[in-house]
Amino acid sequence: MAKQTRRQFLKSIGCAVASGGAMSLLPGCTSIAQTLGAEKKPPNIIYIMTDDHAAHAISCYGSKINKTPNLDRIAREGMRFANCFCTNSICAPSRAVILTGKYSHINGVIDNAKEFDGSQQTFPKLLQKAGYETAVIGKWHLKTDPTGFDYWNILPGQGVYYNPIMIEMGQKKKYAGYVTDIITDHCLNWLKERTPDKPFCLMYHHKAPHREWEPAPKYLTLYDDVTIPEPPTLFDDYSNRGRAAKEQDMTIEKTMNDRDVKLVAPKNLTPEQKKLWDAAYEPKNEAFRKANLQGKDLVRWKYQRYIKDYLRCIASVDDNVGRMLDYLDEAGLADNTVVIYASDQGFYLGDHGWFDKRFMYEESLRMPLLVRYPKEIKPGSVNNDIVMNLDFAPTFLDFAGVSKPADVQGRSIRTLLQGKTPKNWRKSMYYHYYEYPAVHSAKRHYGVRTERYKLIHFYNDIDEWELYDLQKDPDELNNIYNDPAYPDVVKQLKAELSRLREEFKDDTGAPV
Ligand SMILES: [Ca+2]
């Protein structure tokens, strides 16, 4: 009898069943579990991560440009973190921080070019030792094979949206269809096939909505009949900022190319997909239109092409997260599973005229973080404390009942999830970005963000400081580092920056 069918059958006749001489419990049978003293079984963990999904494209974060009903459901049934930040806003580095609970200069992945040393301590390895069954499915992007997982099935590198190849435990296989659906299919299959009596940790990693933002065939024409609102800083001229903001290479105007705006189709489409693609994007007409646009009109056209595709990709993510949540309900797993939704960092959605991430400015520094765990989290709660991707690993260890190794630098947010912020919770966060010179030319910098202020030091080929008062200037348009009203703030923040660099043992980059 197939596993699932057997389980369904067992469920129909009762919850407990003799298995190998021991009682094994079926999901959803908490009363019997409690009778047997099994209530101490640690919760399951499903960590859902997208790639480059900015919080301001999620409706529970106040998005003005899209709706995400299934992501909103996690917030409605759990907690939304309003101030979760990334320590190094780029793909591979953020993933390495999440796995280790350690800053980039400690885990070794300071930029996308570095390989992750899989022999080091990670939270999945520690969960495995504690009896968890672990899996990672979807985008990995750390160059070396995953370690610490009983099962892995990953995209090679960035992967592709259509008809992707995946590497299952070292074996390459090609799948027909759309990547966001396929990754979810694999996750659901793994959940159905796993060892039922072990707690599990599944890292469910989407490729979407990473560049070049290629939608599922069914969403190719979503938003065709609407104009997406433009961000207020789309035509930022970077006055009152330093060289870093002026000299980057990530504008919609200059950097965004024909592939990004879909005047060039991907190579791996089937003839049928190509037909749908051409019909949706009208390459000849749109190329003609683009050629006849200039200045702000051209930026506006490109922004619409970009943002609609970005949001179309998110529509598929939202649908598939809904499939996952429905499965957890059907399988009776919802009560004893911590469900997390996050992205590896934020993203510029035309803000400051940009796409991409990297900078410590708000749109890419901020990460979405939604957590549902009915046993400990009050539905619909919002937390405003400063938390980081550095905290994810210690949080998962906390839920698993594993004590935090001394070298893990983050802090568990479990008490925050329970609605109790410890008195000594952090009041500032430390950031350090390294990938320069490189694509998009975002200069090296580190900095500190408090509830109200942000101080950034750009170094390497420059030596410039920027200070923002986020209360008065939430869009970060006025660098007040040299403003005569703020020398005390600068002094305090520099002291805090030095303290954080010492706490996190970071002596890389220019001195403060
Ligand atoms: Ca990313």
Overview of this protein structure:
This protein is α/β, with parallel strands linked by helices and 512 residues long. It has a domain at 42-213 and 308-422: Alkaline Phosphatase, subunit A (3-Layer(aba) Sandwich), CATH 3.40.720.10. The protein is built from 15 helices and 19 strands. The chain has helices at 3-13, 30-35, 69-77, 91-100, 104-107, 123-129, 179-193, 243-247, 271-281, 283-291, 295-330, 362-365, 392-400, 414-417, 487-503, and strands at 16-19, 22-25, 44-50, 79-81, 84-85, 133-138, 151-154, 165-168, 171-174, 200-205, 337-343, 366-367, 369-372, 381-383, 387-388, 428-433, 445-450, 453-458, 464-469. The strands form 4 sheets. The chain has a 10-stranded mixed beta sheet with strand order 9-8-7-6-10-3-11-13-4-14, sandwiched between helices. It has a 4-stranded antiparallel beta sheet with strand order 16-17-18-19, covered by helices on one side. The protein has a 3-stranded mixed beta sheet with strand order 12-5-15. The radius of gyration is 23 Å and the shape is globular. The N and C termini lie far apart (65 Å).
Provide the low-confidence segments as ranges.
1-38
The main pleated sheet reads as: 10 strands, mixed
CATH top-level class of one domain: Alpha Beta
CATH architecture verdict of one domain? 3-Layer(aba) Sandwich
Named once each, the bound ligands are:
calcium ion
Strand order of the largest sheet: 9-8-7-6-10-3-11-13-4-14
Mean pLDDT: 94
Count, helices: 15
In CATH terms, the superfamily of one domain is Alkaline Phosphatase, subunit A
What is the general shape? globular
CATH topology descriptor of one domain:
Alkaline Phosphatase, subunit A
- Helical content stands at 25-40%
CA distance, first residue to last residue: 65 Å
How much of the sequence lies in strands comes to: 15-25%
Alpha-carbon Rg, integer: 23 Å
